[in-house]
Design goal:
two-stranded antiparallel ribbon, 2 domains, globular, 148 residues
């Protein structure tokens, strides 16, 4: 049986990168389909950063997802209960995510992860999102992402 990975971090909902991936991980875990090595980091890393940006608690967001709401409905819940980002804030969020690991505080972590995965020679993996894509068998850059 092949692994069931969450959607690309380049997928968008309401213009926001990563948000659908975070929700997908919650749904996959709920169905027992999320790879075990993803469980320890649920609600941490980019999940936590996204929740911080939207000013909602991860546990409360997860409860909304687990109740059966769609991506759009969960994002609407975030806007009501937390922060409703402006178009400018969405652009800033997306650019921040797109560049994480490229010449910033996460650059060393990216380098270490690439080495650990035997990918140190890959010049096409420039960011953390690229690493996620490649690690899950997709090409870097998010060329297959879904935009809503």
């Amino acid at each position: 049986m092949s692994a069931t990975f969450p959607r690309s971090p380049h997928d968008r909902e309401g213009g926001l990168l990563y948000f659908p991936r975070m929700l997908d991980k919650i749904r996959l875990k709920q169905r027992g389909e999320l790879p075990e090595d993803y469980h320890a980091n649920l609600g941490k890393g980019f999940d936590q950063t996204c929740c911080d940006f939207l000013e909602v608690a991860y546990e409360e967001l997860a409860a909304q997802v687990e109740s059966g709401l769609s991506d759009e409905e969960v994002l609407q819940w975030c806007a009501r209960c937390g922060h409703h980002p402006t178009e400018a804030q969405i652009v800033i969020w997306n650019e921040y995510l797109r560049k994480c690991g490229w010449n910033d505080r996460l650059a060393e972590r990216l380098r270490t992860r690439l080495e650990g995965l035997g990918l140190a020679g890959r010049s096409d993996i420039q960011t953390m999102l690229d690493l996620i894509e490649v690690d899950e068998g997709r090409p870097p850059g998010g060329s297959g992402a879904r935009v809503v």
